Amino acid sequence: MLYWDYAAAAPPFEEVVQTMEQLMRLHYANPSSLHRAGLEAEGLIRRSREVCAVALAVLPQEIRFTSGATESNNLAIKGAALQYEGRGRHMVTTQVEHPSVYESCLQLQRRGWEISFVAPGSSGRVDPARLAAEIRKDTVLVSVMHVNNETGSIQPLEELGRQIKAANHLTLFHVDGVQGYGKLPVELNSWKADLYSLSAHKLRGPRGAGLLYVRDGVKLSPLLSGGSQEQGERAGTENVPAIVAAAKAVRMSGEQRSALTARLLPLRDRLLRFLEQLPELLLNSSMEGAPHIVHFSYPGMKGEVLARKLEELGMIVSTRSACSSRLAEPSRVLLAMGRDHAAATGGIRISLGDSHTEADIEALEQAVKKAVTSLKITEGGRI
Ligand code: PMP
């Protein structure tokens, strides 16, 4: 079996597994306790915060540890909404965001907030001028992802940041960085980002761990009330093994970014060139996208059927993103990019990681050819 679902969850670094195991045995004390064992656990969190701060070129006190990017995105959007309601009740986001951003915005909308959902172009990128035109005096926050989790399209964050701040310097800029970190350069300062979310398990860290960068001076109203952990913005006893292991994954995947990208780009390009030649196939990714995501549709053929066929042939792929793959509706992201219902229903996402080789790509290409041919013959995959 070959695993092609790194964008859903990447296999952890060996060091991450070892760290989790050792810390669960050794550092079970509560980091808020004042005895020596508690202070040791607190010290581990402090060092992890420093590690993440170095990796992102920010200050340690600007890092909040969370249970993952879903929580980070919820905290960024709803925490800012609750904190800055006095400035207005308007937000701007895009039609292609992850459900943790999109649904948070819809929840606010149901409570009377106005949300502008900006449409992307056919490549999935949003036009900065078009987005900036939505910004008003009462716009509290703009949320735009770095890399799309379904198609791999990359947003022009530097230009977005410039135009957002030019339109309203008080508007906060949140970036969901989950699919970009470890694959593309991260420049929080040049993006003028105030908030930035990461998830550890996409970076070969543990699941259930993530972080939110909160620029100094920005305040968030906590979504979890309780103790004063994470500067009072995220109450609850810290998951010390996951935090330390997540910081390790952030450091290691940051250090390995250039080498990984250099390995993945030729593999991704080869796969795209192969898919391009298949008749009827519609590519939803391009060479301008992130180096690890390739998405395509066979209009009229159900993604799940194709994915199941590929699994029979030894290839583990996903139909879109893990969070939406159980939904029967067409992909909101593909519809927003102007794809029709047939193309947006299903589709296949292939996501690459460090373990893949040229021989693996060759095997995948053969499997795709075989799967498509056999489904066409049986017509079993037709909608
Ligand atoms: N944002 C994006 C772009 C993602 O791909 C994901 C993971 N599917 C998330 C947010 C949510 O991350 P987590 O699984 O850590 O909650």
TrEMBL record:
The protein's required cofactors: pyridoxal 5'-phosphate
GO MF term list: catalytic activity
Domain Aminotransferase class V: 3-364
Stored InterPro entries: Aminotrans_V_dom (IPR000192), Cysteine_dSase (IPR016454), PyrdxlP-dep_Trfase (IPR015424), PyrdxlP-dep_Trfase_major (IPR015421), PyrdxlP-dep_Trfase_small (IPR015422)
Keywords for this protein: Pyridoxal phosphate
Pfam families, per the entry: Aminotran_5
Entry-linked SUPFAM superfamilies: PLP-dependent transferases (SSF53383)
Name of the featured protein: Cysteine desulfurase NifS
Source species of the chain: Paenibacillus donghaensis
Upper lineage: Bacteria, Bacillati, Bacillota, Bacilli, Bacillales
